[in-house]
Amino acid sequence: MSLADKISSVRIVLIPVFISLLIYSRYHPVLRYFAVGVFILAVLSDFFDGLVARIKKEKSELGQIIDPLADKLLLLSAFISLYLLHFNIYLWVVLVVVSRDLIIFFGVIILNRLKAEVAITPSIFGKLTTFSQMFTILWILLRWPHSFSISLVAVIFTLVSGIDYFLRGVKAVNVKNNSSGR
User: Fold this and answer.
1) Predicted model pTM
2) Which residue of 26, 27, 132, 159 has the smallest Cβ count within 10 Å?
3) ∠ Cα 165 11 82 (to 5°)
4) What is the pLDDT of residue 50?
């Protein structure tokens, strides 16, 4: 396992720590700040695993799976936990985030079943979505004002990236159908 893959794995290990701190922060409010620290550490690990992989030229098949998986697990668990623990987050925000990721997940399965060639690489919209979602979670954790506006920006990026990935999937199916029809 490469160093970059180990860093991504740490992000997955931090998820239950983050959620536990959120849960217990209801009884000990100071733990919310520890949850913020753990979340920031997880966010930084997302930056550093990519940096290490590029510097050391450690592109691996495992890394192509574990890095986005760690991101999805972190973000989905954070959004769902924040809502269930009654933080200032709207249900529709959580539903948009979860729905987009489920649609992408099932889309990849369908493309795989159709044997359509599609590069599962992050687009600029996907990167902006990840950043805006991480920023939104931090904003809500810190209980800063205007969480509605910040959440709305994340929802817009989430929808745009979802549409982008959907169109890439449709294009892959069309390319496959055109090449197999000849």
Assistant:
1) 0.91
2) 27
3) 75
4) 87
